[in-house]
Amino acid sequence: MENSFEKNNMLKEFYIPTYIFMPESSVEQVSHIPCCPVIVFINTRSGGQLGHNLLITYRKLLNHAQVFDLLDETPDKVLHKLYNNVERLKRDGDTLASEIHRRLRLIVAGGDGTAGWLLGVVSDLKLVHPPPVATVPLGTGNNLPYSFGWGKRNPGTDRESVISFLKLVKEAREINIDSWHTVMRMKCPKRSPCDPIAPSDLPHSLHAFHRVPKTDPEDMEYSYTYRGGFWNYFSMGMDAQVSYAFHSQRKLHPEKFKNQLSNQKQYLKLACTQGWFCASLSHPMSRNIAHLAKVKIMKKSGKWETLEIPQSIRSIVCLNLPSFSGGLNPWGTPSKRKQRKRDLVLPPLVDDGLLEIVGFKDAWHGLVLLSPKGHGTRLAQAHRVRFKFHRGATDHAYMRIDGEPWKQPLPQEDDGKVVVEISHAGQVKMLATKDCIAKGINDSPMSTTCTDSSSSDDSDDDFTEERRNFGAALSFRYMNDVKKTVEA
């Protein structure tokens, strides 16, 4: 067992002095340069009381100034201020600031949505040496932490548990993962029932802005565009519906969602009450994916092609990481015969510029994943996906990005339109332990790298402007007025 002296010495390796964060503070004379300086972001709403307890412990072990409650300070403001100050200190010849800049690692504690929020901000900074991110599981699904070896459940909030986690952060290796850009456009006649989504109902990773009509401002139609990103998955259908019900109930009755175990029980209960286990009886065919939307994909050839969706599929998942719904792998391992037949790349990798697209019929189909070789219905692998929703199929659909769901209005009029497009948007750095299940190109000699999406045929691409203007740090702020035009 380590004594207190050894532990205190070890904690110095993570410590960042206050003046690094605050330009108004006096420069401190520090004799020791930490080998693994960290900034900690904690969503104190996640995991019931766990988030609050974790905040207290980290602030006791480290400098209070390097541990942030996301309810009080957003990561974009924190990191912009930090890097501006670090650059100023580096210009003044501050060696410690230079080393912290070079060695910095980020820790984020919360659900998958919280982790995605931070990843989006880091992506938007466009740093030459972006800091890698470690994730503390505090949410319900915890797919991001599980994928990179951090576990499915919170490792503990006491002093010993946090010190053990910090050691893992110091020893962790860096791994690149793909970032995915999502653009959604709604075009509806004025006074139609296809209203824009309220900013408060949007996921953190989806941002609304109004695209001014190119013709007369009094034109009889309006167009809203939403843009954002994800790192694990985009899903649509019954799984997102259950997730939406869960989030709605948690907002109404937070006292019922006190810890991770009770949250998971509530989630399973909602899956039953929402009819996910008896979908053929509880849900009309109009909610099946093939009835909702026409799906197109772009493979390595750079040409759009229609993806045929079986009529029985009620959920579709565009997956980047090998973890969904709390650690299940919907893709599995295709046989070589199926790989050749469907033009699949084996194995699925997190940095190959490809998404795995999987379908599910109902919850019973999902339970197949619990078996060693279980998987969903493998539909395709692609580096761009487009959903164009049929008019009048139903009045709304449920969608989800990295654990954060929303209820998406769909057009009812003949000239209404809702289109969602997903495309590759670069990479971010994650920290991975020895238990990491995610595999990259360097881990798999059998893999092939996908051609970059910038070489694709964009002859029918309506999203060039949104893709060019995309910026996560700006996107991850709720807008007071979605009708306001956002300048590039």
UniProtKB/TrEMBL annotation:
Residues 455-464 have a biased composition (Acidic residues). Residues 443-464 are annotated as: Disordered. One of its GO terms (molecular function) is ATP-dependent diacylglycerol kinase activity. InterPro entries: ATP-NAD_kinase_N, DGK, Diacylglycerol_kin_accessory, Diacylglycerol_kinase_cat_dom, Diacylglycerol_kinase_pln, NAD/diacylglycerol_kinase_sf. The keyword Transferase applies. Residues 443-454 have a biased composition (Low complexity). One of its GO terms (biological process) is phospholipase C-activating G protein-coupled receptor signaling pathway. Keywords: ATP-binding, Kinase, Nucleotide-binding, Plant defense, Stress response, Transferase. Residues 33-186 form the DAGKc domain. Phosphorylates the second messenger diacylglycerol (DAG) to generate phosphatidic acid (PA), another important signaling molecule. PA is required for plant development and responses to abiotic stress and pathogen attack. Belongs to the eukaryotic diacylglycerol kinase family. Monomer. This is Diacylglycerol kinase. The gene is LOC123079389.
